[in-house]
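Recall the central idea of this unit: under ordinary conditions, the amino acid sequence of a chain determines the structure it adopts. In this exercise we apply that idea directly, starting from the sequence alone.
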Amino acid sequence: MDGTVFDPAGGTGGPTSAGLMLRARALWRRKWVVLGVAVVVAALSAVYTLRQPKVFSASTSLIIDVTAPRFLDGEVKEVMGEERSNYWFNKEYYATQSEIITSRAVASRVVDKLGLSTDASYLGVAHISDEKARVQAMQGADAVGLLQSRIRVLPAKDSRVMNIAVDDLDAARAALLANEVANAYMAENLALKLRMTDDARSWLESRLEDLENTSKASELAVYDFKKDADMLSTSLESRMSIVSDRINSYNLNLTQVSTRIAALQARVEAIQKLRKASPDDETWAEALPGAKDGPIQDLRKSYTDARVACAELAERYLPEHPKLLECQGKLAVIQADFLKSLRNVVRLAETELSEAEAQRKNLVKLLDEAKAEAFQVNKKSIEYDRLKRESDNNQRLYELVLKRLKDIELSGLLRTSNVRVLDPARPQFAPVKPHVKRNLMVGVVLGLLTGLGVALLLDLLSNTVASQEDVEGRLGLAFLGVMPRIEGNRPPKDRDLFVHREPKSSVAECCRAIRTNLLFMSPDTPFKTLVVTSSGPQEGKSTTTISLGVAMAQSGNRVLLLDTDMRRPRLHRAFGVPNDLGISSLVVGEGTLEAAVKSTEVPGLFLLPCGPLPPNPAELLHTRAFADLLKLVAGKFDRVLLDSPPLNAVADAAVLATQCDGVVLVLKAGKTNRDSAQRALRSLADVQARMYGAVLNDVDLKAPGYGGTYIAYQGYGQYAEDPKDRVAQS
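Accordingly, the structure predicted from this sequence is:
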């Protein structure tokens, strides 16, 4: 497995299986905290439960019907008698009854009847020995509210049965209170019905008097209107029928007259046309239809015969002949009668037309008068109907209120109730509170939950890297191994070279395991240069670098240690070599590599000190000369380990990481802050450094948190070390 470029978001994912396992292990490490908190909470719950007073309960069962039994006709309805057959209406009704049972009005009835407001035992002040103080406490107590808090309504499922339960410290008193609450509820229910009945009766009585006066006034108004409209002998309907018949008759006659006028008008127009055609000859009237009547035809025939006779005489006699003159005289008389008859026909036609027009005018006048009378009758009918309707409505309302008042008076005499006692309460001497078993079980469960919460809180508050899970799960790094704590007091030089001088110790074994893990990180292309750094100072990076170098040298490699901490170099003191010539000297071109590299007491392990401290370490490490030096030593040695400054303090380690094959981060167990480590990793990620993993340093293998995880490193076979030889590691 190759080292990889670190992703700073890699270890901060959501609740994955690895994260859950990390939480589980953290809880297991704090299992004694969980158990301790659980025991404490369970004990407190048991003490609290056993110190609670015993509470007894008694219940009375009632049957509550929606409506009371009916003893009267179905037409007689009570004020509160609303029939309910709908499920939701019934549900609302029984919920309302539950509220009434637990109401203050019902509780007040019980308190007043039993005198509970002066009962010291009921009020819980009997333990007060001072009489004055006890009386004062009783006066300040709310007996009604106390009883309300003890009443419980328990409806039976799918039935009309409702149980009234009362809790009390005395079993007999609990039964008494339950029965009295049931009685008080029935009394309150009946009283409420009677109060509503009385209120309704009072209102109806006052309203009835007003309606009676209104009805009388309406009847008088109808009478006065009929009198003024002359409706005592003939009704408006009859008068309206007569007027309608007259209007129909007028319309019929008017139609007939109009038709006759049209005919006469045509006849007169024909006469006038004939007159215009023969103004000088009266014989034009012979063309009139009336001129063909019998008398006129006789005159015409006589006139024709006379003209023929005169014509014959005129041919036989002279004009002055007496016979001719006599004949002409007769002809003139006959002609005058004939023309007079024709003129009478014309005058008759004109007279008939005038008469018909006068008749139509009179009919129109009569029709208008009839219509006006009809409108007047309609108006009176509307007013009469309004007055009659108002009178009838007032009368019906009066009769309705009167009937309802009689119903209420009759139903008010009944004392029926829709509530019946099914089973009265009896004393139950088994306490219902406290629930010892349930409370103990709840205490244990709450204790465990509280313990888990405390353990999780401690784990969340702990912001240090303390285990392999923290390295892998929270930081997202490969875990290379642990460096156990070196116990005891030893000089710094012995502490740094502990792996060399105690090769069979657990520290040396752990260091060799880290070496093996590093080599297996990239078996095909093993690293040549490796930066060992930390997030902050005093985390053991220098000691870890020396220990890794010793372990690698013991495996037969030529290993070179580079002290690149040019601010606080320490490797030359650990091996006891001078620091006058080193990296800073070689970078600026002073001295040779052979003279600068120092051998150590560890076979195969060499040291290139820092050299004189430069004023600009970061710039010096960033030069081409340092890169060439690094390539040079990589070619001469199998492994090159660079001891660099802390990442969060200066940028030297980030500069070195870009020039080496990989980086190893040293974390001090229980001391290195996770946020500080993540900042260091982000700085490495910014320069695309290749991370090989992390080493957990200064691990106390005997601590409870590590005993199960790193048990393989504790006292195993010949690698067990004498406790007297353990020294402290800084």
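The chain has 25 helices and 13 strands.
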